[in-house]
Structure prediction request, 244 residues.
Amino acid sequence: NLFVSNALINMYTKRGMLEKARDVFDKLPCHDVVSWNALITGYTDHEYDEEALMCFEKMQLEDGIKPDVVSFVCILRACGIIGALDKGEEIRSMICQMGLFVNNLSIGNAVVDMYAKCAMLTKAQEVLEELHVRDVATWNTLIAGYVQQGQYHEALTCFERMQSEGLSPDAVTLICILKACGNIRAVSIGEKIHEKIIASGMRGKEDVMLGTALVDMYVKCGALEKAQEVIEELQARDVVSWSV
Prediction:
């Protein structure tokens, strides 16, 4: 029963029992795209990205099976993590040929992420511009990529553009931008973000992460009294907050 077997593969991969999942998969007389996706997703989720790529190649050799949105999103993530740019570009061509690119937000975001993780930020920006639909996650991927590569002014430009499109930054956006502000000592922008955080009333885990990012920004800008004030105001603190 293919439906039950696929559910078993999915259950084993979610528990990290990849050998068991593979054993069930190999014993099946036939597979469908769901079987392959369950295995590919399991490998990418547990950082076996090379194995995921091999599964993707084998899947395409089976008669009647074509990758779908889930397959492409997972395999683009694997390409980004291991820096397999050539393979990522090959997959992007396949996506374009199937007409899935500009109107599918999940795939568009995955392509931007793949280029950003491969440090191809100009390409990532080009892809973002081509997308008919963008969301906060699309911009976050590009902003994070610029910050990781030390291109802080470009990250701030993206932050402004994102807001001009009517999108509200989330915790990921703000943490990245605070890092950019700290590294270029843009304390005035950092203070405006501080005001946004207070107004949004973020609490719990987000409060600790954002609080630590604020402390870090103020410290890098030499505003140690402000950094001390922020840490005193936090409802929860951890060793990272104090270390900063």
